């Protein structure tokens, strides 16, 4: 057997061994999610709820154009908005770190090392 065939055989046997636990855990997670969904009384949003959210968003966007709207916001509200923005930015940064698989920068090969392949 050559190396490729051996590797494929090993991967296939590993996948076969793991398929049982993976499917079992997926079913358990599905049942737990179902129980939480029922217990919390969750339901998909209705058309009326979508319409209400749309109207509220449009109202906010229209009022945001007015300078008096921003003057009527308290310092506590600005602080809370800043904290929410910082939290969102932190999640963005964690996503970047996960995507790069590195804390700083991307693992980019130099042009010199790329030229060796051609």
From TrEMBL:
The keyword Cell inner membrane does not apply. Keywords: ATP synthesis, CF(0), Hydrogen ion transport, Ion transport, Membrane, Mitochondrion, Transport. GO terms for molecular function: proton transmembrane transporter activity. GO terms for cellular component: mitochondrial membrane; proton-transporting ATP synthase complex. The keyword Kinase does not apply. Pfam families: ATP-synt_G (PF04718). Its main location: mitochondrion. This is F-type H+-transporting ATPase subunit g. It comes from Entomortierella parvispora.
